[in-house]
Specification:
The complex is a heterodimer of chains A (354) and B (224). With 354 residues, chain A is α+β, with helices and mostly antiparallel strands. Chain A contains 10 helices and 21 strands. Chain A has a 6-stranded mixed beta sheet with strand order 7-8-9-3-10-11, sandwiched between helices. Chain A has a 5-stranded antiparallel beta sheet with strand order 2-1-4-5-6, with helices on one face. Chain A has a 5-stranded antiparallel beta sheet with strand order 14-13-12-15-21. In chain A, β1 and β2 form a beta hairpin. The chains are: A alpha+beta (354), B mainly alpha (224).
Chain lengths: 354, 224
């Protein structure tokens, strides 16, 4: 039986928030899945529904060949029967128990010892949770969940309780730990970098609904709807109109400008989405290159964000480019200046608007 | 000094505390975690002894355990004895009278345990009962200790309920507070002095220890 998780749940929360999420995850093909979405999208609620800590108003949850929940048939397994390990956002370690006793809470001492060794916790065995760092607490929580030998591991924003420096370090480490866990995992996050670093597969959730699932790179490169594009942080989402199609290419009118892109068979009004990283800038406004989209425009604003510069341009339509701060300095960019933006045809992605 | 009465009071307080730990814990658990709409009614009933005159409570208990009540009749058939004016009857009344002093600190302590810890335990496959034993009780230990100390102290000091239900039988129902009353009535002021002073000292030590242990014990003072 393939390790597939299928869920279709509806739940209205006391505050009036409505969750209506349908999800199908091929967990054997993709060991780490990210449940991605902005804060307040209902990701944690969905996770709690999957663990059985929360009852749906109606719906079904099936994991492998086991029905966890089917409100129509009155089937319900509690959290104890689902064998779905949960790592809480703040780890929820038992404060009255040492690291060793936390890990061994639902496991034999042998299994606990093995987990402690694997997660590099052997030296902390006797320490209390409040006396270890956030990153160490996270490893304890992970070891505790895995020591109970779950069939599915769920992590709620596992990096958000860490400070920035620890987050970067732990992010890399976590990917390795999850990939080698031997248990499929679902990670809730609202952070794009986390999603890209940690996951193979991703499900995008906005306003209580799952809008798109697929391999992470596909979802980032080809958001299915404008809402997904906005959620995954594609900076340029431009209303466009198809004016011509020939030779597998589409010609779009965008504002007072034009773009060319691959023909995916879309018709009617569309949205052109371009990631700001995929926009290159050049002073050479007339040069020849393989790029079909060479857009002359005027710089309207520049802001430096760490090592990157965010350049806003007006080239018949507003376009945001993300370049390194060094290149922005080399080009000596100033607002009001004329410049060309270059976008590869394959970097323009067409979304049906509707 | 009426050592017999002091011994009886201590015995009654100890028995009451033990019974209340057993009965009060599940009730406090229910009060802390139930989401029933009518929970407030149970909370109000448990808190009643805090505001009722002890004579009122004592009167009802006396009637309820009397030989003509179903409870009293059943007890008489099972044991051949009567509940009123017996140590057991006194124990029943004391348990009801001190109930809020057990249930409230326990419920407050249970309620203060982070619910996520319970959920974490459940998701690890641990049953609700084991979770209560392994997570809730250890974390609520100060509250449970406070409940025991307050119930014990409160039972040692009770007067009205004992007088109503137990009367004044030396060695059976004459507790230390009744003994002081007797001493005063019979103008034995020296005896009343000594016994009273002992009670004041005892109560002070108990409360001082409790507050040094846990600030929120009686919720009379703001948290530190």
């Amino acid at each position: 039986m393939a390790a597939t998780l299928t869920a279709a749940c509806r739940k209205t929360l006391p505050g009036g928030f409505r969750l209506d999420a349908a999800l199908r995850l091929p967990l054997d093909q993709a060991p780490v899945t990210v449940l991605f979405g902005p804060s307040g999208a209902g990701k944690t609620t969905l996770l709690r529904l999957l663990t059985g800590l929360e009852h749906p108003d109606d719906g079904t949850i099936v994991f492998r060949d086991q029905t966890w929940c089917d409100t129509a048939r009155g089937v319900w397994l509690g959290p104890q029967q689902r064998r779905a390990g949960l790592v809480f956002q703040d780890y929820a370690l038992f404060p009255h128990l040492s690291v060793q006793r936390n890990v061994a809470f639902a496991a034999s001492p042998q299994v606990a010892e093995r987990m402690m060794a694997r997660f590099g916790l052997a030296g902390l065995a006797g320490r209390m949770p409040r006396a270890i760092s956030g990153g160490e607490q996270q490893r304890v929580a992970l070891a505790r969940a895995l020591a109970a030998e779950p069939e599915l591991l769920l992590l709620d924003e596992p990096l958000s309780a860490l400070d920035a420096a620890a987050r970067v370090r732990t992010r890399r480490e976590l990917r390795g730990l999850l990939a080698s866990a031997g248990v499929p995992s679902i990670v809730v996050t609202h952070d794009r970098i986390e999603a890209i670093t940690l996951a193979d597969w991703m499900a995008v959730m906005v306003d209580g609904r799952i809008l798109q699932t697929g391999p992470v790179r596909d979802v980032f490169a080809r958001p299915a709807t404008a809402q997904v594009a906005e959620a995954v942080g594609v900076e340029n989402i431009l209303p466009a109109e198809i004016v011509a199609r020939a030779g597998g290419l589409l010609r779009l009118r965008v504002g007072n400008g034009a773009l060319e892109c691959l023909d995916g068979g879309e018709t009617g009004p569309v949205l052109a989405s371009i990631r700001a990283e995929d926009v290159a800038l050049t002073r050479d406004t007339a040069g020849v290159s393989t790029q079909r989209n060479r857009l002359s425009g005027v710089v309207s604003a520049i802001s430096i964000e760490g090592p990157l510069a965010r350049v806003e341009m007006e080239c018949g339509f507003p376009l945001v480019a993300l370049v390194t701060a060094q290149s922005a300095a080399d080009l000596n960019l100033v607002p009001g200046e004329s410049l060309a933006a270059v976008v590869k045809t394959t970097s323009v992605h067409v979304i049906a608007a509707g | 000094m009426d050592w017999q009465a002091i011994g009886l009071s201590l015995r009654l307080a100890l028995a009451t505390t033990l019974v209340l730990q057993l009965l009060g814990m599940p009730l406090a658990w229910w009060v802390a975690f139930s989401r029933r709409r009518w929970k407030f009614l149970v909370e109000a009933v448990v808190a009643l002894p805090l505001v009722l005159p002890p004579t009122v409570l004592g009167f009802y208990v006396l009637v309820a355990i009397g030989p003509r009540s179903p409870v009293g009749a059943l007890y008489a058939r099972l044991t051949g004895g009567l509940l009123p004016f017996s140590f057991t009857g006194l124990l029943v009344a004391s348990v009801l009278y001190s109930m809020p002093f057990t249930v409230q600190p326990m419920a407050a302590a249970f309620g203060a345990v982070d619910r996520k810890l319970l959920e974490a335990s459940w998701c690890l496959g641990i049953s609700r009962a084991s979770t209560f034993r392994r997570v809730v009780i250890p974390l609520a230990r100060p509250g449970i200790a406070t409940a025991a100390i307050l119930s014990f102290a409160h039972t040692v000091g009770e007067f009205g309920v004992v007088l109503m239900v137990g009367g004044n039988i030396a060695g059976v129902t004459r507790t230390v507070s009744i003994s002081i009353y007797d001493q005063t009535q019979s103008l034995d002021y020296a005896g009343a002095w000594h016994t009273s002073l002992l009670l004041v000292a005892f109560s002070f030590v108990v409360l001082a220890l409790t507050y040094s242990w846990q600030r929120r014990a009686w919720m009379l003072w703001p948290p530190r």
